[in-house]
Each structure stands twice: as C-alpha cells, then as structure tokens.
C-alpha cells in the first residue's frame, strides 16, 4: 500500500521518522521544515516531509550544524542540484573534520601512552613532563 497522497498528523510523522514531535516542531521553527497546512489547528504533512527529515538526519550524521543544514535545504537557488549543494558545503566542512580527526588522533595517542605509564609520582611522570614542555612551544605546534 502506497503512502502517496496520504496526509499525516505530527504524531504519525514522528513515529515514522523515529523522532519526537517536539523535534519536528523545532525544525519548523528554525526553518529546516517549511510551515505546513493545519486542519483544526493541527499540523498535517504529506510524504515529502519524510524525505526532508531524512536529509536532515543525513546532514547531522555528516557533521553539518543545523545552520549548515538550513543552508543545504534553503540557501541555494531552486535550480541548484542537490549534489551541487552537498559538494559546496562538503568542501567547506572537510577541513573542520580533518582537524577533528587530527585532534582525536592526538587524544588517542596520549591515552595510549598513559596506559604505559608506571610512574610513582606525577612530578616524575615523563608523559606529563613532555606535555608540559609541549605546552611551552609556540601555539602553532600541533599534537603529534
């Protein structure tokens, strides 16, 4: 049975999208979802809302902020293909993700080195002494 042409309440959309109705109302308030028809004061949605919610979820999984997601959905010409929109935002997002990966790699390295620590006092800990010396380097130094 096709859902084409069906109209759903916010509760049904929330159930289908596995979201809380409050999330859907919030997405409307911040212009991620367009205002929808109301019947008797209650929101009514067609199946296109599920596609839009899927795009929002995908953008979140890719690390886009809500503002970046709003740009993806609303910040381009109507003629701009979805792939062109995605490429534009992804090119801007990748350096941020690369920096995050580098930071996480540094954190992992420090945690792993700390697992090897057998120091009897913090004052003699080579890991802490190395970190302290590293902190005194110019701010452009990168955790290796």
Strand-helix topology:
Layout: H1 10-17, H2 21-29, E1 37-39, E2 42-44, H3 48-61, H4 66-74, H5 82-115, H6 126-135
Short structural summary:
By secondary structure, the chain is mainly alpha-helical.
Report what the structure shows:
The structure is a single chain. 58% of the residues lie in helices and 4% in strands. Helix 3 packs across helix 4. It folds into two domains: 75 residues, Multidrug-efflux Transporter Regulator, Chain: A, Domain 2, CATH 1.10.1660; 53 residues. The protein has 144 residues and is mainly alpha-helical. The longest helix has 34 residues.
Provide the descriptors you would attach to this structure in a database record.
144 residues, mainly alpha, 2 domains, two-stranded antiparallel sheet, disordered C terminus
The proportion of residues forming helix, as a percent range, comes to 55-70%
Rg over CA atoms, rounded to whole Å, is 24 Å
CATH topology of the largest domain: Multidrug-efflux Transporter Regulator, Chain: A, Domain 2
Mean pLDDT: 87
């Amino acid at each position: 049975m096709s859902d084409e042409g069906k109209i759903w309440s916010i509760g049904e959309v929330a159930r289908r999208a596995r979201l809380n109705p409050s999330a859907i109302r919030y997405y409307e308030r911040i212009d991620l979802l367009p205002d929808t028809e109301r019947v008797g004061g209650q929101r009514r949605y067609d199946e296109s809302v599920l596609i839009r919610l899927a795009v929002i979820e995908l953008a979140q999984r890719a690390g886009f902020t809500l503002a970046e997601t709003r740009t993806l959905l609303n910040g381009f010409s109507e003629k701009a293909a979805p792939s062109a929109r995605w490429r534009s935002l992804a090119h801007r997002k990748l350096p941020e993700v690369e920096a995050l990966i580098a930071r996480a790699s540094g954190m992992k390295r420090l945690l792993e080195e700390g697992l090897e620590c057998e120091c009897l006092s913090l004052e003699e800990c080579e890991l802490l002494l190395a970190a302290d010396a590293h902190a005194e380097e110019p701010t452009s130094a990168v955790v290796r």
